[in-house]
Amino acid sequence: MGRFRRKSCLTVLALASFIFLIVVILKSVPQEALDLPGAFGQDLLPNPNKMEKPQNQPHPDTDNALPSTDNKPDTKAIDLNVDTPLEKYPPPNYNVHAFYYVWYGNPQFDGKYIHWDHPVLPHWDQKVAAEFPTGRHSPPGDIGANFYPALGPYSSRDPAVIDAHMRQMRMAAIGVLAVSWYPPGMSDDNGEFSDNIVPLVLDAAHTYQIKVAFHIEPFKGRDEKTMFDSIKYIVEKYGEHPAFFRHKTRTGKALPVYYIYDSYLVSEAQWALLLKPSAEHSIRDTAYDGIFLALLVEEKHKRSILASGFDGMYTYFATNGFTYGSSYRNWKSVKVFCDDHGLIFVPSVGPGYIDTNIRPWNSQNTRNRIKGRYYETALSAAVEAGSRVVSVTSFNEWHEGTQIEMAVPKSGPPAYLDYSPHKPGAYLQITRKWADKFSGEWLF
User: Fold this and answer.
1) Which of 71, 144, 301, 336 is deepest in the core (most CB within 10 A)?
2) Using CA atoms, how far apart are residues 325 and 331, in angstroms rounded to an integer?
3) pLDDT tens-digit profile of 280-338?
4) Could you give the CA distance from residue 160 to residue 347 in angstroms, rounded to a whole number?
5) pLDDT in tens, 294-309
6) Is the bond preceding residue 424 a cis peptide, omega within 30 degrees?
7) Which whole-number Å values give the CA distances from 215 to 179, 295, 304, in the listed order?
8) pTM of the model
9) How far is CA 255 from CA 41, 245, 292, in A?
């Protein structure tokens, strides 16, 4: 009997210990891991027969709702797929912009892969560079990105791809795409001429009531004269298109919007010759006037941007802490500076950052997505700074891992990240969730 009691006690004690252990483990698991996360599935993808299919795509799922992080019902979750009428989509918010890249190509549309075969960039210090691999990526299995697109390594010229992109942006309530732009006959170091893709983008954007602004890259020979010529070309070639974005100011003018990447590479004096109303050949009060936004990198650039005659500033980089401008803690003071001087502040928010498939030595600048929380933190910081307009870095800059475009799991080698535990459209849903926070006049 004594042995029986001891055995019974031991059994009870073991059972109690097991239950206690399970409770401890469950309490230690983050809440988001206990949720049953969902997001938009792959119903928005075009006909797969029109492009190469990535391997190991999950089966399309009709459960398209991403749970709200505050555990309240997500009233904005609807079923969006290729059969959903446009009137069922959320209205476009023209205060939410997204940077859009048209430099991708594949053999079907371009005769070869473009940008997906991005070279591995060497570190500027030869000793550091020697520690890392070199060469080019080899699509379709090996691409120059840490995530794999749901559309596969697509061509930016493919009408079906462009349509899918517009549909994704519209489902995210993005109202303006800022297309990366080089003048005719020019391109980035790894791409080819892309100005002739702009008409395709404009036509597709118009179908979805999305507007198109221009993100002007630092093309060779860029100065106040070539910038005037570039703006003149853009307005005369694209300015009459119904999708060409014009922001109506308080004075009643409807002006195009231009983001000027790496604006600091042109001197303050040169910009003033273009942007100051008093300059002899100023663009102000001409048919080519616009809203010109400079890139804020260092703190000293605030004064320089003001003196140059810009209308405002944006921050572009999705890496919190990488620059003064991209650091969330500085956005409130930047907004105050802009308000005090009649400038627009457009903070740039991103879902994360990772570029180690093209810059393997740059892991210190990686910013983990944390299942969407990094992106929501950035959006929250933009709201708290008082900004009424926001730019998203990016819709599809795959090389730097800042894309909100749909991505899918892909087996390696090489190894790819994905949006797990969420679905391919998770970051579109987060964008849509926050879009309503940005509204009203831009205050300048």
Assistant:
1) 144
2) 7
3) 999 999 999 999 999 999 999 999 999 999 999 999 999 999 999 999 999 999 999 99
4) 31
5) 999 999 999 999 999 9
6) no
7) 5, 11, 20
8) 0.84
9) 37, 8, 10
